[in-house]
Amino acid sequence: MTSKTYRRIRSDHASEVAEDYVEAIADAIAQRGICRAIDLVKHFAVTHATVNNTIGRLQRDGLVVTEPYQPIDLTAAGKRLATQSRNRHEIVETFLQRMGVSAATAAVDSEGIEHHVSKETLAAMKRVLTKGWPENE
């Protein structure tokens, strides 16, 4: 692998937690109208300290807004990132299922793949989902 490849992998890993958190925050708000730290503690099975540290980083990066003991809300940038992450996740999960992977396995596998799939590969997956496999064209 080249140094460019390793840089991309490191960048993907760095954004993975942010993407997971903003997606979980968006889901909690959509389901319950509010997201609190305890929702994230339960969702990710981590400690309050872990959630608080991560929310602090997300706030510093302009993805969330919150105050101590108050709900967590997404900024416009956080909402965009959550939507992009959700879309990638759905494309990858649907693609895996279309390939014959069970729904349960596709749900788990897509959670990791979604963060590392390139734009080119994601576009190809989307083409297959909408137009079928290339040999069928």
TrEMBL record:
Subcellular location per the Swiss-Prot or TrEMBL entry: Cytoplasm
A GO MF label: DNA binding
Pfam families: Fe_dep_repr_C, Fe_dep_repress
Residues of the HTH dtxR-type domain: 14-75
Gene Ontology annotations for the cellular component aspect, listed alphabetically: cytoplasm
Keywords for this protein: Activator, Cytoplasm, DNA-binding, Manganese, Repressor, Transcription, Transcription regulation
InterPro entries: DtxR_MntR_Metal-Reg, Fe_dep_repressor, Fe_dep_repressor_sf, HTH_DTXR, Iron_dep_repressor, WH-like_DNA-bd_sf, WH_DNA-bd_sf
Recorded superkingdom: Bacteria
Subunit relationships: Homodimer.
NCBIfam families: PRK11050.1 (NF008273)
Job of this protein: In the presence of manganese, represses expression of mntH and mntS. Up-regulates expression of mntP.
Protein family (similarity comment): Belongs to the DtxR/MntR family.
Name of the protein in question: Transcriptional regulator MntR
